[in-house]
Specification:
The chain has 405 residues and is mainly α. It has 17 helices and no strands. The protein has one domain: MFS general substrate transporter like domains (Growth Hormone, Chain: A), CATH 1.20.1250.20.
């Protein structure tokens, strides 16, 4: 039976949650099977680290470019066009990724998968934000994000019983199956109403031709940077950090599973907290505080146990639940004619910033050493995020029926 308009569990919310599940599965799969897949291609341990950084950087560049392309299409052609097109692209790319026999083809298919993965979450949250009343937007976004995060846990568990090629095939197959569910999802009425308004839709340059709008856009991006410092540096390369901290035998795949399982709880918690406080910004800053505490604990655990290491990764994940707030804020900060462009491109600008974060980390560790360089990088990004959040307007309960001119 179809859910009534405004229901938290209407088809658009359920399909968006399932879509993000597949999105996260595919997005984090490389981090989980990085070592066995690259070793199977004949790379040495040193090359596994070096090429691993290159491949994840290329994937994130794909996300960066895809965020722009899918965002523009989301405002010009509709939110549903992105939901269909993005999942089709990354599903095919992941199936092809299971056939690779060289690093070069691995890089090409991870780039294409990155482009495809860019559209899923932002388009889903944009659609649901426009379909649901303000009182349910935060909770629906938290539900989508927290359920979707379980895709990382599924990827880890499957990696223990299926070889790395099979993991890619499963991810692509799940995406193709999901396409069938999307046929019954309807476009939002706010977007359909744009046809009666003489406004520019999906004009990406509008983020740069107005100073106030540009600053608003950049703040939303800066708020998210600490999340991918944690995901892309501390946890993706947790085996190296474990060695530096005197905790050998750390499995990056297990660390990612702990991180993302906790992010699922963090997403739901921060969504509920923002509803209770009636403030996106207050909830965001509280979870920044949680994140900062666990970053500190991460670097203080010298000579500790692997079990403690994984639980600290879980604590980092719980704090990183703030991601659902900044993505929801990104959708609420901009008018209907630019909303998809903002909500899709902003999280992918953040993901796409990972190569720059890795370069910053490499620069810092070249002068300060591995561990000191890592925490200095984290401190810099946390300060930037906090300042950006303080100066961002709280968007809780905002009426989304407006346009950018």
């Amino acid at each position: 039976m179809a859910k009534k308009p405004g229901s938290l569990f209407q088809l658009a919310v359920i399909v968006s949650a399932l879509g993000f599940f597949v999105d996260v599965y595919d997005l984090l799969l490389f981090g989980i099977i990085r070592k066995p897949s690259l070793a199977a291609l004949g790379l040495s341990p040193a090359e596994v680290l070096q090429k691993g950084e290159l491949i994840i950087s290329v994937q994130m560049i794909g996300l960066f470019l895809g965020g722009i392309v899918w965002g523009i299409l989301g405002d010009k052609k509709g939110r549903l066009s992105v939901l269909f097109g993005s999942i089709l692209l990354y599903s095919i790319a992941n199936i092809l990724n299971g056939t690779v026999h060289s690093v070069g083809s691995y890089i090409v298919f991870r780039f294409l998968a990155g482009v495809g993965l860019a559209g899923e979450l932002g388009a889903g949250i944009t659609l649901v934000s426009e379909l649901l009343p303000p009182s349910k937007r935060g909770i629906s976004a938290a539900f989508i994000a927290s359920f979707g995060i379980l895709g990382a846990v599924t990827a880890f568990l499957l990696s223990r019983i299926v070889d790395w090629r099979g993991c890619f095939y499963i991810g692509g197959g799940l995406g193709l199956v999901l396409l069938a569910l999307r046929v019954s999802v309807h476009e939002s009425s706010l977007y359909r109403g744009l046809s009666d308004k003489h406004v520019s839709r999906g004009n990406f340059l509008m983020f740069f031709n107005n100073r106030e709008r540009f600053v608003r856009y950049m703040r939303c991006i800066l708020i998210g940077l600490p999340a991918w410092y944690i995901i892309g540096v501390l946890v993706t390369f947790s085996d190296k950090f474990g060695t530096e901290l005197g905790i050998p035998g750390i499995d990056p795949g297990r660390a990612i599973m702990y991180l993302y399982l906790a992010i699922a709880f963090g997403d739901m918690s921060v969504g509920l907290l923002s509803q209770w406080l009636r403030s996106r910004k207050k909830a965001l800053l509280i979870f920044y505080g949680v994140t900062a505490v666990f970053i500190l604990l991460f670097f203080l655990q010298r000579g500790g146990s692997a079990t403690c290491f994984y639980w600290i990764c879980a604590g980092l994940g719980y704090g990183t639940g703030f991601t659902v707030v900044y993505i929801t804020m990104s959708a609420e900060q901009f008018g209907t004619n630019l909303r998809a462009s903002a909500a899709i491109s902003i999280p992918n600008m953040v993901r796409g910033a990972l190569p720059l974060i890795l370069l910053l980390f490499k620069f810092a560790r070249g002068y300060l050493g591995y561990l000191t360089g890592a925490w200095v990088t984290g401190l810099f990004l946390m300060v930037i995020g906090v300042v950006a959040a303080i100066y961002t307007k709280d968007s809780f309960g905002r009426d989304l029926d407006f346009v950018e001119t």
